Amino acid sequence: MGANFALFFAFYVLTPLLPLYLSEHFGATKDVIGLVLSGYTITALLFRPFSGYFVDSFPRKTVLMVCFAAFSIFFAGYLAASTLLLFTVVRTLHGGPFGALTVANSTVAIDVLPSSRRTEGIGYYGLSNNLAMAIAPTIGIFIYRWTHSFELLFWIALIVACLGWAIDATVRVPMKEIQRNKSKLSLDRFFLVRGWLLGLNMVAFGFCFGVLSNYLAIYGKEHLGITGGTGAYFMLCSIGLMLSRLQGSCALRQGRLTHNAGTGMCISLVGYTLFILMPTLHSLSILNSQFSIINSQFSITLGYYGSALLIGLGNGHMWPAFQNMTINVAHNNQRGTANSTILISWDIGMGLGILLGGIVAEHLGYSAAFWTVALVNAFGVSLYFLATKSFFLRRNLNAAVH
Question: How far is Cα 120 from Cα 225, in angstroms, rounded to an integer?
Answer without folding.
Answer: 41
